[in-house]
Design brief:
Layout: E1 18-19, E2 22-26, E3 32-36, E4 40-41, E5 48-59, E6 62-72, E7 80-87, E8 90-95, E9 99-102, E10 110-119, E11 122-123, E12 127-128, E13 132-133, E14 140-141, E15 154-157, E16 160-161, E17 180-181, E18 187-190
Antiparallel strand pairs: 1-4, 2-3, 5-6, 6-9, 7-8, 7-10, 10-11, 10-12, 10-13, 14-16, 15-18, 17-18
Length: 202
């Protein structure tokens, strides 16, 4: 209704609609003629990504990165996404999972993700998130404590490494009375006193 001008607003159209124009001519003296253009079928509207953002979470397995995507489809089709994860401009992972765990990120590494939207007729334009520069990573303990084989002396050397290559030092935050740890070497030493029993958290 009301579409009587040489241009046409397509915002109300949907995929599969057929559209044609009829042009009516008049010479002002009662002579009239009309011409009909060939119809066209409205094609699929590809999905469009409006934004991609990265969230980072530190886990025991490494840095977990999550892609948060905002997108829309003019045909209201369901949208699926494919992701390409890049570290220092090199692809490290691809797939449909919006998250990835990177266990060996180092300080000053740059990571990002490129998302591509799909509906059932094809792909839309890819969009890449703003790069995330990795900050300091915490050191990790790699060794497993030994069981106490003697009631007179307990020794255990904590082995740890830092993914950024920073020097590592050790501190005993809690433990039974008399237990110590060497700050540089990580060696735990404990001589239980007389009458000590039960469970002790270190």
């Amino acid at each position: 209704q009301g579409a009587t001008t040489p241009s046409f607003d397509t915002s109300t159209l949907h995929r599969g609609d057929r559209v044609h124009a009829v042009v009516a001519l008049s010479d002002g003296k009662g002579g009239e003629a009309s011409f009909q253009a060939s119809p066209v079928t409205v094609p699929n509207a590809a999905p469009v990504i409006e934004s991609v953002a990265l969230e980072q979470e530190l886990t025991s397995a490494g840095s977990r990165l999550l892609a948060k995507v905002e997108a829309f489809d003019a045909d209201q089709d369901d949208i699926q996404f494919q992701y390409r994860w890049l570290r220092n401009d090199k692809v490290v992972s691809e797939g449909s999972d919006p998250s990835v765990v990177l266990p060996d990120l180092a300080q000053n590494d740059t990571v990002t993700v490129e998302a591509t939207p799909y509906d059932h007729d094809g792909a839309g334009k890819s969009l890449r998130a703003a790069p995330l520069v990795v900050g300091n990573n915490p050191p990790k303990i790699l060794s497993v404590p030994m069981m106490m084989s003697s009631g007179e002396l307990y020794e255990y050397v904590v082995r740890a490494e830092d993914p950024d290559g920073d020097p590592v030092s050790f501190e005993l935050e809690g433990g039974p009375s008399g237990m110590t740890i060497d700050r540089a070497a990580g060696q735990v030493v404990w001589r239980p006193g007389a009458g000590i029993s039960g469970t002790h958290h270190v």
